[in-house]
Specification:
alpha/beta, inorganic pyrophosphatase (n-terminal core), Diaminopimelate Epimerase, Chain A, domain 1, 5-stranded parallel beta sheet, 19 strands
């Protein structure tokens, strides 16, 4: 049996091949699979240029927000930028502070401490900013659900401009301006901006009004980092932000990023979205998970080499500490899950887990068992939880149906957070479990692999890989192309990694031998036998300073078995 559902996508129709005659059939197939078949669509997707930028004035409340900032500028008011503690919020905060400085405004950055303050706008923090003389607060990646806090801020004489991308509730904060592409009133053509993307649009509107839009380009690297890290779809305007931002990072990275890239053993010139997601973002996130995210903010804005080196080393240590703690807590969480019958919803808890690790644990459980997972950080009076889900289950909607038991919740359909009185925990588990059992009943809960095309290994080469790269940047919404090859011979296979978690293999077809790696497939070593059908990505292995193509094996099944290819 396949470990995943294999869905071989339908072949591109001949008429679409004819209208895109300048593309190879394989690239035309990949574009068709992504809903792109008309020449104009294809050209814009591949170019990913500034034509993808939307008019920032189409965002709700953009004009009053711009007017309020310029009034603050003319009156020499003190402005604070209040961001979230993840990479999206950190980069958005840095982007707004540095962008406002180009307009002559010295804004104060404020990022709450995850452990001592928690997520979102906090009245105590706003009171503190007001006492420092701040009269205008601009939020980044938070604030859309903070109606009560904004109301209190107004009473203390603070104006608030909310810039956020999270799903709004029915009650919109009574702020001076609320800029969010997801608002029902929004006329903006692209709703999938990250928090840093919304902040970028705000700056764009500010700069456009005085003819300084060209200066925005120096900050687009921050927009790329936050957009990638927040797992927003790399489609539409996000493609432009990420593509241009990666160019800047590769050509002339800011000092702090340059040090991080060097200490991570990477080199500029070939950094892509996957590298940011797997190497850079976790290091930037480590500060907010275990200490204070302001350290990562400072790394992004520093112009001191000594400070950049020190902060990079510290973040590396924190990331290694985060990895150790995650492994330890995950082991305990897995034991809790396995001690019970695997149900449609997984719930585990721990009293000692750092609050910044909970989401990682929930994500690992959801990925391993392919079930929605909730990890609860247990407290004596108040408990908090992080949720990660699967496409078949909208976790945010489910939390909404249990909201009578919750103090607070928010997020997206696949990732959410919550707090609740600990006395409600048992009823909450029952409520959420019943919803999951009802909605997931009868489903074969296995991850699904969309296969772009069936190919023969001898037909793959560097020219094919280069052609595929026209579709980059790859990520959420525009995944790395997935291929299927049948009747492949296994020449050699062994486990790798200290605990044998991964597989390394040599695969042969038609006289061509390819190296393959299977991350996380070590437990399936005994299932391997020739010949095989394999599903994989084509990627570059840069280990040891050399570059060569290899196969990243995602799944495999014995050739000749009853197929589970869904057409």
């Amino acid at each position: 049996m396949n470990h995943c559902h294999w869905k071989l996508l339908p072949p591109v129709p001949d008429e679409h091949l004819a209208t895109n005659a300048g593309l190879s059939p394989l690239v035309a197939q990949l574009l068709y699979n992504r809903g792109l078949s008309e020449p104009a669509q294809v050209e814009l997707f591949i170019a990913a240029d500034s034509r993808l930028l939307g008019d920032p004035l189409l965002l709700p409340d953009m004009q009053p927000a711009v007017a309020r900032v310029y009034r603050a500028l003319l009156s020499a008011e003190s402005i604070a930028v209040y961001g979230d503690f993840d990479v999206d919020g950190i980069t958005g905060t840095a982007l707004l502070v540095q962008g406002l400085s180009l307009l002559g405004v010295k804004a104060t950055p404020y990022i709450p401490h995850r452990l001592t303050e928690g997520y979102g706008l906090k009245t105590a923090a706003l009171e503190n900013l007001r006492q420092q003389g701040v009269s205008l607060v601009i939020t980044v990646d938070c604030g859309i659900t903070a109606a009560s806090e904004v109301k209190k801020a107004k009473k203390m004489g603070l104006d608030i401009i909310v810039t956020d991308h999270h799903t709004p509730t029915e009650v919109i904060p009574p702020a001076t301006a609320v800029i969010n592409p997801r608002l029902p009133s929004s006329a903006y053509p692209f709703a999938e901006l990250a928090g840093v993307g919304v902040a970028f649009k705000f700056l764009q509107a500010l700069f456009q009004s005085i003819g300084k839009e060209a200066q925005l380009h120096s900050l687009i690297d921050l927009a790329a980092l936050g957009t990638i890290a927040d797992m927003t779809p790399l489609l539409g305007e996000n493609r432009y932000l990420v593509k241009e931002g990666l160019k800047l990072i590769n050509d002339s990275p800011r000092l702090g990023l340059s040090e991080m890239i060097t200490q991570a053993g990477l080199s500029t010139g070939n950094l892509d979205a996957e590298t940011v997601s797997w190497v850079i973002a976790p290091r930037l996130n480590a500060a907010g998970r275990l200490a204070h995210a302001m350290s990562s903010y400072q790394l992004l804005v520093t112009d001191s080499l000594v400070e950049a080196q020190g902060l990079t080393s510290w973040l590396q240590q924190k990331n290694e500490e985060r990895q150790r703690i995650t492994s330890k807590v995950l082991t305990r969480a897995r034991e809790q899950v396995l001690a019970q019958e695997i149900s449609p919803l997984l719930i585990a808890g721990d009293e000692d887990c750092p609050v910044g690790i909970a989401g990682l644990i929930a994500g690992r459980l959801a990925e391993e068992f392919y079930r929605p997972a909730v990890f609860i950080r247990l407290g004596e009076q108040i408990s908090s939880g992080s949720c990660r889900s699967i496409p078949e289950f909208d976790i945010l909607q489910a939390l909404g149906q249990c909201q009578r038991l919750l103090s607070r919740f928010g997020g997206h359909s696949q990732a959410a957070g919550l707090t609740l009185p600990t006395r409600n925990l048992s009823r909450f588990k029952q409520c959420l479990s019943e919803l999951a059992a009802s909605q997931l009943a009868g489903l074969d809960l296995r991850p699904s692999l969309d296969i772009d095309a069936e190919v023969a290994l001898p037909d793959l080469n560097e020219a094919v890989f280069s052609a595929i790269q026209q579709l980059a940047p790859f990520g959420c919404g525009n995944p790395l192309p997935v291929f299927l090859s049948r009747q492949v011979e296994m020449v050699d296979c062994r486990t790798m990694g200290s605990d044998g978690t991964h597989l390394r293999s040599k695969l042969q077809q038609g006289g061509t031998v390819w190296e393959g790696v299977g991350f996380g497939l070590g437990n399936f070593r005994e299932e391997l036998s020739s010949p095989l059908d394999i599903v994989y990505n084509l990627e570059i292995d840069r280990w040891g300073g050399q570059e060569k193509l290899r196969l990243n094996i995602l799944d495999f099944a014995p050739a000749g078995m009853e197929r589970e290819y869904d057409q």
